[in-house]
Amino acid sequence: MNIEVCHTPQAYSLFHKENAIVVVIDVFRATSAIVTAFYNGVSKMVPVATVDEAREYQRNGYMAAAERDGEVIEGFELGNSPFGYMNNKVKGKIIAISTTNGTQAIEASRKASKILIGSFLNLDILCEYLVAQKKDVVLLCAGWKNKFNLEDTVFAGAVVDKLTANNSYQVDCDSAIAAKHLYNIAKNNLFDFLSDSSHRKRLAKLDLERDIKYCLTSNQCPVIPVMEGKYLVKL
Amino acid sequence: MNIEVCHTPQAYSLFHKENAIVVVIDVFRATSAIVTAFYNGVSKMVPVATVDEAREYQRNGYMAAAERDGEVIEGFELGNSPFGYMNNKVKGKIIAISTTNGTQAIEASRKASKILIGSFLNLDILCEYLVAQKKDVVLLCAGWKNKFNLEDTVFAGAVVDKLTANNSYQVDCDSAIAAKHLYNIAKNNLFDFLSDSSHRKRLAKLDLERDIKYCLTSNQCPVIPVMEGKYLVKL
After folding, report:
1. Which of B15, B174, B199, B201 to mutate: most A Cβ within 10 Å?
2. What is the CATH number of domain B3-227?
């Protein structure tokens, strides 16, 4: 089986393969928030591309989350901070969510046969599941407005590292090779390694160091969200 | 000044800035061949996107080079092997050239105010020139059919490394940070580092190890090709 890393939603069509499993990655913070939400008992989520769609769900009585450029959009109770999803209010709820990059990546990969949500928070359980499927894997980084970003690539490298450890996966993709190298430089101190990254600087301005530290801590939420029709559900 | 790395021609429009200098990079082998050609006395080159355009130039009496997927196209005397340009036949000539990735990257960046050609063969002279211009720089990797590739990114990392050494350039771009990391892992043995890369494997099948070694040896051709209208000329 092959494992490939796609750096941006824009490039996804070049990586699309009919039977491959796509893992959508937006470490800071959409996919970390989604994994946290399911771990805290959310029943379903509806990722939508636009804020207007999220508002429409809200008008119809759903809980809704909307974030652009790191901030919660006015009129929404939730954004993409994982801490927003750590309370009893979300339990059993269906939540619509629209974010700057993460939900755009889900949108770009809609045609994939299976779409999973990945983050450091569910790293091990995700990798165990992938190895058991014996299928090609495309790691789709959400990036930042269709540009490469470090944190998503480093996480992709962590997955490549684990999946290639037992030789069942082959890497013929230069971006997967590069991601694995970057992860191996970063892994002993992800927080420091990412201190220069553009998105960490962006979040630091918004006083989100606590979010960053949480998003970089592995295996706190052993659940795998998966797309089923228009919904994300727990696998 | 800022320095950014764009991994593919597809993504270039996201990086375009009116006054930035673009450096087009296709280490294996288009930009290595172009730099070699000018070092060996070629007078001008005309990069063209399609093989048909190259053929048209040929019909009009020009020398012409055309390569797709690593091989010279039938009917052309030159491809993108630098060794093809190391002889007296090319001296003083105007040569049209079309390649799988390199000339596509030039095409994508046509609107840039200045387009230079970079490769390990002209690394130092290129960096010295860039530092002296005091302008923003976009390092445009040709990649492989709009996917990220290792060798172009590692070369971009070498340029980032040199340009940031004296603090005159700022890096706010995650792909530039990643490229510099990859270069620093690779620099002591580029040949070995790139041995897993997809393109090296592709070229190894075509028996082009000699080309690879040549393309990875720094500063053999201290010239800087630059676009002037539809022509590449020596700066």
Report:
1. B174
2. 3.90.1560.10
Domain positions in chain A: 3-234
> Which helix (H) or strand (E) is A161 found in, with range?
helix A150-164
pTM of the full structure: 0.95
Compute how many other C-beta atoms are within 10 angstroms of the C-beta atom of residue A202: 14
Contact A173, A5 (CB under 8 A): yes
CATH pick for A3-234 out of 1.10.10.10, 3.40.50.300, 3.90.1560.10, 1.20.120.10: 3.90.1560.10
Instruction: Report the gap between the CA of B150 and the closest CA in chain A (Å).
Output: 6
Instruction: Supply the ipTM of this predicted assembly.
Output: 0.94
| Residue partners of B59: CB distance under 8 A and separation at least 6 | none
How far from the centroid of its chain's Cα atoms is residue A164's Cα? 21
Mean pLDDT per 10-residue section of chain A, whose length is 235 residues: 96 96 97 98 96 96 94 94 94 96 94 97 98 97 95 98 89 95 96 85 79 96 97 97
For the record, the structure tokens of A206 come out as: 């918004």
